Amino acid sequence: LFAGPIAFLKSAPTIEFLPDAVVPEVAFAGRSNVGKSSLLNALTGRNSLARTSNTPGRTQELNFFDVGNPLAFRLVDMPGYGFAKAPKDMVKKWRFMVNDFLRGRDVLKRALVLIDARHGIKDVDRDILEMLDKAAVSYRMVITKADKIKASELAEVTQATADEARKRPAAHPEILVTSSETGLGIPELRAAVIEAVTS
Ligand code: GDP
């Protein structure tokens, strides 16, 4: 499916603008700069599908991508979070929109929550993990930028992430370890997406 057509569908600045819920969806979430755009591009094998952007103004939108012709499923690029300088009302708006989306989107099969290998799970991540748990949206954590740290450190952060996943009701116990730079874990990520939308 990832070898076939993949196309940007639309951006939804609020949930009134969501596309009709017609096929299964998998959403990608993570702090700004976690490597979400790079991972979406690596996943789909498109160099510039997801635009890299670190400007807070563009972080409020949900971006939808159609996969397959005929349409098989959608990827949802969720707005990044954790901007140090984000104004309070923007954070509030983000929480409202994300909560509405997570609670009301019955075609949402799974969320993938990206965790930077260098940082591990932070409180800003726990915020969305809790939202996912409360909305009962199944999710899986994906470590990004694995190439940036030593193998021993990677083993440690993966273990710590798995330990936390096991304590969380909606979390998949197994962690995906990836690098958009080296391609590590990309086939496994593709398989995880396909599994989520077909099961
Ligand atoms: P986003 O804000 O979450 O969409 O993050 P981006 O995809 O824009 O990546 C943020 C920065 O991290 C960019 O400078 C990327 O080149 C870099 N980056 C992303 N993924 C990787 C990776 O797997 N390995 C390395 N070394 N750098 C990465």
Keywords:
199 residues, alpha/beta, Rossmann fold, 5 helices, 34% helix, globular, binds guanosine-5'-diphosphate, magnesium, GTP-binding, metal-binding, Probable GTP-binding protein EngB, cell division
Folded structure, characterized:
- This protein is of the alpha/beta class and 199 residues long.
- The chain has one domain: P-loop containing nucleotide triphosphate hydrolases (Rossmann fold).
- 34% of the residues lie in helices and 21% in strands.
- The chain has 5 helices and 7 strands; from the N terminus they run ββαββαβαβαβα.
- The protein has helices at residues 36-44, 88-104, 123-135, 151-166, 186-198, and strands at 6-12, 25-30, 62-67, 73-77, 108-116, 139-144, 176-177.
- The protein has a 7-stranded mixed sheet with strand order 1-3-4-2-5-6-7, with helices on both faces.
- Helix 1 (36-44) crosses helix 5.
- The chain is globular.
- The chain starts with 5 loop residues before the first strand and ends with a helix.
- Guanosine-5'-diphosphate (GDP) binds at residues 30, 32-38, 52, 54, 80, 144-145, 147-148, 179-181.
- Residues 30, 32-38, 52, 54, 80, 144-145, 147-148, 179-181 line the site of guanosine-5'-diphosphate.
- Necessary for normal cell division and for the maintenance of normal septation.
